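Hey, weird one. I pasted the DUF3618 domain-containing protein sequence into the form twice and got a warning about non-standard characters only the second time. First submission, copied straight from the form history:
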Amino acid sequence: MPITTKRRKAQKEAEVAVVRLQDLAREQAERLGPYAGQARDQASRKLLQARGWTAPRLETAAHRVEDTVAPRVAELLTTAAHRVDPKPSRRGLRALRQDRKVSRTLLIGGAAVVGGVLVYSLVRMRQASQDAEWQEHLDQARDQVRETRENLGTNVSEANGKATKNSSKETARAGTGSDKGGSTKSS
């Protein structure tokens, strides 16, 4: 058999098979068509139910991830970025060394502020100690003045007492001296 006849025969068999399959598909479509419409309607209802059930759960999960996992992931990503960075930023005093003019100015200014605070505190402490010392001397002077007043008061009262005794003795002598002849003792 020549090749062309074999090809024609295979083509006819294929066309017959296609026609048979198309007829079978039509029969099945007519038989299952109503079921397909029902299945489509049922599937759309179930899909809406599933979406209604899933949406709030997804939103809750999103909030939980946002509150708990996201900060951790962000921190991990930031740490990884710092590790990968070819020129890492320096922190603290090393960061100030990058710009020498700013760091010197800050160091000098900081030293001046610290020195000023130290001088101010020393002056205040010295003034407080002097004030306490002066207050102590003032209290001692007041005590001495009080004691002197008291001593003067007692001395004056003693002197007044002696003076009254002496004057009374003199008047008594004067009265006895005029009786004897009028001689008085003079000093």
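That's the output from the first submission. The warning seems to come from a hidden character in my clipboard, not from the data itself. The CA atoms of residues 17 and 52 lie 47 Å apart.
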